Please model this.
Amino acid sequence: MALLYSPVDIFIIKHQNEFKQTEWDDLSQKYELSEEMMRMFQNKLNWHSIAKYQNLSSTFIKEFIEYQLNPYIELVCRYQHLTPDFLEEFKDRVDWNIIVERSDIPVEIIIKHVNDIAKFRNEHPEYDETD
Model:
């Protein structure tokens, strides 16, 4: 089965060697990129913008969490859709202070992870709200 590329994908593939980093930064932020395109050009894209502006699947986040997305885990926690399974698998990596503020995370998930939240806050005293 042949892959169907969007007009943006075709443009990127055709002109990839002409882009300066500023164009890659703009593409990362302003255009909806397929996960295939993000894989293909992972060494050129701006991963800060990818974490914040692209719609990433849990599978994609898991694939790239060790390297490209690791420095931007806070942005992933703030802007990406995170499933209960993802939160369970990465409970020691997610930013629980951000997770508890999100209105789309069911309270049952927060209650289930109350010990992980406490552990996170103990390990990250910069989040101490008493100062």
Summary: The chain has ten helices and no strands. The CA atoms of residues 72 and 80 lie 11 Å apart. The two ends are 58 Å apart (CA to CA). The chain has a mean pLDDT of 93.
